[in-house]
Amino acid sequence: MLTTANFLQYTQWSGIATLVFAALTVLAFILKWGIRFRLVGTTGFMLVLTGGLFALSIVPLSRTVIPGAVRYTLVYDNGSTQAVIATSPQITPTQLEATLRQATSNLFSYGRSGTQQDDKLTVRARTIIHPEPGISVPVYLGEVKRSLVSHQNSPITVEIYTANFAQLPKPTA
Asked: Do 52 and 125 belong to one domain?
């Protein structure tokens, strides 16, 4: 996986290429080459590319890994205060708590905006059970809430719906 150090190195090489294209563009205007306006476009593109690589070099791209968490799928996200993840019906309450903590950490972003009444990100976990053939029922297993204002030092409230775990099918040996 690419790290911020890799992107910083790519930024340096892209910056050098941008300077080379800028020098070629100036030279093309002085010598009145026919491709001088194409070089202006190429230099502009290189500036945008260098800026994007620089942004990727200062923002971490890693995901949080919490021991005990299982795979989940993001099934709903309003981009603001609510998200829903789907898990396997064979999940245990301890695995669910770790998975909810991991999901809320991975889904947190400073771009999310809360409302005046609700400045918390709420991530709910659900699974699908099939009590009869042809019938699917969603079962909510828990939720986690955390502040949208602060990523560090914000309290995380995890609530596990233990009564809903009784509805899950028992694992077969």
From this structure: no
**Inter-residue contact 99 to 87 (CB < 8 Å):** yes
Amino acid residing at 72: Y
Q: What is the tally of structural domains in the chain?
A: 2
8 A C-beta contact, residue 86 and residue 72? yes
What is the DSSP code string of 88-145?
A: -TT--HHHHHHHHHHHHHHH--TT----SS--EEEEEEEEEE-SSTT--EEEEEEEEE
**pLDDT on residue 151:** 67
User: Residue 4 carries which DSSP code?
Assistant: H
Buried b (16+ CB within 10 A) or exposed e, 33-52: eeebeebeebbeebeebbee
| pLDDT lower than 50: segments of the chain | none
Residues 54 and 108 in one domain: no
pLDDT tens across 68-118, in order?
A: 999 999 999 887 888 999 999 889 999 999 999 999 888 887 777 765 566
